[in-house]
Protein 1
Amino acid sequence: MAAISSEFSQADTSIICKLFKDKSLAPYVIKTVRDQRITFAFIAVSFAWYFWGVFSWFLQGAKSREMFKRLQKKPEQEPLELVSNN
């Protein structure tokens, strides 16, 4: 019944059913998925470290441009004198 309701051919259906009946499939899938997760974690940490460096570099550039613009502005009034020379 499952073969009739799916888009798989009869040959594909028999291969898939035989694969799922195999007792060595579960340990194989568990091992390969574990290996893939370990590899993904290593790659994800590597990319995160790289992109954190790039992000902080861009952030430093944006903050330095803001500071440069503030330094280029002329003060609207003289700063207050905090100490009097009496």
Note: The helical segments are 2-5, 10-21, 25-72.
Protein 2
Amino acid sequence: MTSTGLNPASAQTHHSTIYVSGDGRVLARKIDGTLVELGVMKPDADGLAYQLHVEGLYGLGLPTAERLLQDVAAKLADVDLDALYDALPRYTGHAAVDLELDPHLEVWTGPLTDRQ
């Protein structure tokens, strides 16, 4: 993150890390440590599936947790995650998120700024 808070490659402004926790939750952690549950993950006939608590977003048939996170990130690319952190309740459960072991992906989201 630059001192302006922008991702220099894309001018997107919201940095988060999304995780699949050991108990099958899709979580997002804001740079300040705020943790929210974006949705839940479960096995399906073709791999993994997820259902987000955001605008009915879901994914099916994903072969790995890493691919699931990539799919979640792609679907949230134009969403203002700051608004989600305000709308979704903070996660207070006991889903330990281990940065070394649990699948995770750092993401930049939010509307792109006009670069004209």
Note: Residues 36 and 85 are 7 Å apart (CA to CA).
Protein 3
Amino acid sequence: MKNNPFHTVIGLAELGIGIHLISHDQYFLWPPVIDGVANDDIVGGFFVLVGAVMLYWVYDTKRAVRLDHVLLIASSFLMCVLTLYQLMHWIVLGIDMPWISNAAITSVIMILASRSDSE
């Protein structure tokens, strides 16, 4: 955990976001055509899965570089889609959503991915 504090924070954040999405079945309201898909527990489950595997990677003694790359790609994708979807909710419906903090987490993930060791 001391060697990879950003991975730890990202893993915990994604776990928390996933649990929040799973426990709130009407979190997303727009557009009505896909709100059922967006509010599905599988979406939150992806966040929980990626966060849990990220925390596993932090505590794994081998720390495979390939797994790190896959996790950073998956994390940046999930967080980017979530941020943009929340931004659209704020623009269209005026609903307060944490898109700014999620954009900050997304940028940290992307910076971490660009600096990750590729050997």
Note: DSSP finds five helices and no strands in the chain.
Protein 4
Amino acid sequence: MIQLVYGGVYLYSPKGIDRQRLVLTIAAPGVLDSRRRFVTGLTVEAAHDGDPLTVPITVSGTRRFVNTTRPKDLIRDWFVEYHDTLSRQEMEAVRAMRRIAEDL
């Protein structure tokens, strides 16, 4: 099982579904360090979706985007590959937009 970190970007591969995707972990470090089966994350997209609450990020030198309005419960066992960790500034932007999104 992969050790998950706050602000980490991982390849996520749901069992029985032929659709891998990149996800950003946003669960608190205590949750990520626990044995909880589910952690909270956001899907990482290749293009901006036009939503003002979408945050640009950099993953392994490539510009990507995270819509902060759609958190997902992700199954820990389905994380298959680590890609990168967001910078402190990028995570602060994601957290700020998540707080706004929670008020919608």
Note: Strands lie at 8-12, 21-25, 38-45, 54-59, 62-67, 72-75, 79-85.
